[in-house]
Amino acid sequence: MTHNQKSADVSFESLLKIFTIPEGPDSTLTQIEAELSHNLNQFLREHIVAEEKPLTEIERDFSDPAIPEQPQFVSEHTDHLMNTLVAHSVHTSAPSFIGHMTSALPYFLMPLSKIMIALNQNLVKIETSKAFTPLERQVLGMLHRLIYRQHDGFYQQWMHSASHSLGAFCSGGTIANITALWVARNNTLKATSDFPGIEQAGIGQALAYYGYKGLAILVSERGHYSLKKAADVLGIGQQGLVSIATDEHNRIVIDDLQQKIAELKQQGIKPFAVVGVAGTTETGNIDPLGDIADICHHEQCHFHVDAAWGGATLLSDKYRHLLSGIELADSVTIDAHKQLYIPMGAGMVLFKDPDAMKAVEHHAQYILRHGSKDLGSHTLEGSRSGIAMLLYSSMHIISRPGYGMLIDQGIEKARYFAELIQESTDFELVSEPELCLLTYRYVPENIAATMHKATKEQCLTLNNALNELTQFIQKTQRETGRSFVSRTQLNPARWYHHPTVVFRVVLANPLTSREILQAILQQQREIARLAPQLMANISRIAYSIENSTPMP
Amino acid sequence: MTHNQKSADVSFESLLKIFTIPEGPDSTLTQIEAELSHNLNQFLREHIVAEEKPLTEIERDFSDPAIPEQPQFVSEHTDHLMNTLVAHSVHTSAPSFIGHMTSALPYFLMPLSKIMIALNQNLVKIETSKAFTPLERQVLGMLHRLIYRQHDGFYQQWMHSASHSLGAFCSGGTIANITALWVARNNTLKATSDFPGIEQAGIGQALAYYGYKGLAILVSERGHYSLKKAADVLGIGQQGLVSIATDEHNRIVIDDLQQKIAELKQQGIKPFAVVGVAGTTETGNIDPLGDIADICHHEQCHFHVDAAWGGATLLSDKYRHLLSGIELADSVTIDAHKQLYIPMGAGMVLFKDPDAMKAVEHHAQYILRHGSKDLGSHTLEGSRSGIAMLLYSSMHIISRPGYGMLIDQGIEKARYFAELIQESTDFELVSEPELCLLTYRYVPENIAATMHKATKEQCLTLNNALNELTQFIQKTQRETGRSFVSRTQLNPARWYHHPTVVFRVVLANPLTSREILQAILQQQREIARLAPQLMANISRIAYSIENSTPMP
């Protein structure tokens, strides 16, 4: 459709052309590609975060539910995309975009991604992936070794074994967590001589056979929301996802974990998995993994570690120890599209025991036949892309020490930012950085002192007013598009566990400079001044607390 | 890491460089990209299917479980990839690669994929996707309209509604099917005034509350293997996936469906979903969707259509009618990476009722807040790429009539190939093409006549020998790397339902010519001659049948 037609007619010849390799460096497509690369680079250089066009206006450009009846020229369509889509997308790789775990990508991945797209391998089966299959098995081996540090003989034996998998690549941490808990569930309620196993009989019969009233997964109250989906989808129910208290550092309270396990057992409910968090999504903290492992070992319970974000810390000689105990986990989730700097869609789950995934093994007649090395026989997903290739390349081009350095700089930058906040009289550090993530909020000068004097009830009133201000600042900063921090809600002990809205920053982008961090605080101060009513309300509440007069 | 270092030391400056936009057309990366494009195009032009290197040898190149301690230059690594990976990958877009549903891609997607990779949007939330979110909602609207043909007002009301989703993008058909059945399960066992719903209470309690002994999903024996995974993962158990007989055209037998539903109900088991198949994976046939819809309506049962592969037929004016009744489905799976010619990783599930997905809605504090338009509140997956963009572009550049033409040519080519097989005295057409998929096998001349005379027992013996030959031909053809057909096992009524190994071809690539199809048959004849023992065995069995002598 790239050539000479403006009419509604589509010819079969023009269709054949779009499937034919463009010839030489002067082809229309090559020219479009060069221009596109130039324009994209310009966008990435000029735009910070996103343009200030309201979503409702953007939606107008994407409101026609009819599939076009007229073909568009590639060049014309590319222009359309640049104007309607690219110009109003989010510049996730901007150094001032520090709000989420989606960060910058190494530029060498742009050309290398072409290999993935152009070859369009399907990793579900060798017949459509060939060398990509051993490559993916090697990458899984690398991650397994990073976590479990088994000897070389172990990997020689299992990495390429047709009937084993050391783990699975998947679209992201959610599918990885679901896969881990699926395996755990099936191994707990497995087949015996007189029971066909939960995978055949379902939960109802499995509970009856094993004499349990229900199943439970335990995780700290900081566990990722994907675990709620996992409990739902796996048929356990969200009530079976038991929340454990955290301490002032957002880490699971071991005593509470033990008590909850005892309570569940007394109720006839089987606690079949405990999830340790290695890098909580909202505060970046790490559970005491060794202690959880001990309990799981004692209780014969599957120990899963959700290290979707924090797992990459294992690449740092300096901070690897923070995840100590992870090697005792039965399974671990790691997302390559977070701190391994790979494009979106690269999650992984690793299993300590090469036999673990047999609990979810499946076959078919046309693929995944017994004895084949098809990766699809152990994955929740079916067809999958060859994105493992990009991680393989990054491991080689950046190397382990390079990744370590990226991790180190993030953590150290977060410490710097925490100091900057603590030195400021108008900001409050809410959670300290253990990895490269921290939370804080703007608290107008002199208000902090008042908060410490306030009663529990007064504190709630003041906190609610501050929450409104934090929300306003975060939204306004996002909308002005110069920089971006995210926000979440915590319940800090220091503020009587009142709901407290905070800014959340993740400092993974190596180009985020100290100057940018200083500027972000300055912008937030300035935005606060744009809300005189919210500010006045806070002052009024503080005044009434200071003077202990009843509030109107 | 692209510049001047050969030592093990990685400097932070070199790390910064890899995250910095490469300047101008003379940068190292631009040069590498140009060379890579050239080499990839050369590979795609020169290689047919794959090189003849045994998998065990390829595995040797991917056997080191250690993450490299030394960084590699991008150029050096690219060469390494070309030699070890690309040279031994599968040329899925070759016109003679007709074995699977992974086919050619339009070349305009190569430059456009850059936008997806470089912007690295995360569709789970607006904050990391902005305009990509309305775009994805529009694409879902387009597919919804293609299936359900609602009026414009419907799409105006629901397409961009914050609290609704017309469906979900996901990594592929498996997740799409799981999502549909998850929604169906949760809507069947939903919350009431005195029950919190299955999503909270789990299957055990839900069955007890509703008074069911179990749950069942019904699908024809040709249903995709992902449904077994779905039944397992959703806690229903694979025994709850009830298989319904098919007729001689591989379509579900409606009487058997009705009977099985009645039996289940008598056993106290709730048949909560029936899956109609619109394009079976192994034979490409379409169930009588309207009839299934009637039964589901009568039984108040969720009607899901797995149109992962066949759904694209709706784009053809000429063949759209083959899927008649699909508009009555409660949900439909369509894979864009199959007959919509999009790179791997683009599945979709659509729901007729904009409220259906409320059954799986979820929220979190830091994203997916109530009232947000974050797509992640209705998806099984969390972080997701902006691949919807590529489908949006293809819809615009190819247009609806263009897609229709691609579908038409596939179906008509399959009919041609079927005729070619039927005209040959040494090939047997096992399943006729309804869409662009058919199965057949090589049956040496004169053997066909013998088979028709054989008793059931004799036929089994002969069939087993033919199965060995079919396997040999398929494997050898794959290994010689000139062309590729896949194989599966069917149980045709005509051969007493004996297991029958067949070649399976999918004719989606518009560049697959009639000459190529003729050549593929000729190659298969020639390969058969390379197995004189198998051929002699078949002759011997045929001889003993013809002469009715007992076989040794």
TrEMBL record, chains A, B:
Cofactor annotation: pyridoxal 5'-phosphate
InterPro entries reported for this sequence: Asp_decarboxylase_pyridox, PyrdxlP-dep_de-COase, PyrdxlP-dep_Trfase, PyrdxlP-dep_Trfase_major, PyrdxlP-dep_Trfase_small
Gene3D superfamilies according to UniProt: Aspartate Aminotransferase, domain 1, Type I PLP-dependent aspartate aminotransferase-like (Major domain)
GO molecular function terms noted in the UniProt entry: carboxy-lyase activity; pyridoxal phosphate binding
Stored SUPFAM superfamilies: PLP-dependent transferases (SSF53383)
CC annotations in GO: cytoplasm
Presence of keyword Lyase: yes
Residue numbers of N6-(pyridoxal phosphate)lysine PTMs: K338
Example GO biological process: carboxylic acid metabolic process
Keywords, ordered alphabetically: Decarboxylase, Lyase, Pyridoxal phosphate
Family recorded in the similarity comment: Belongs to the group II decarboxylase family.
Name of this chain's protein: Putative pyridoxal-dependent aspartate 1-decarboxylase
Organism: Vibrio eleionomae
Taxonomic lineage of the native organism: Bacteria, Pseudomonadati, Pseudomonadota, Gammaproteobacteria, Vibrionales
Gene designation per UniProt: panP
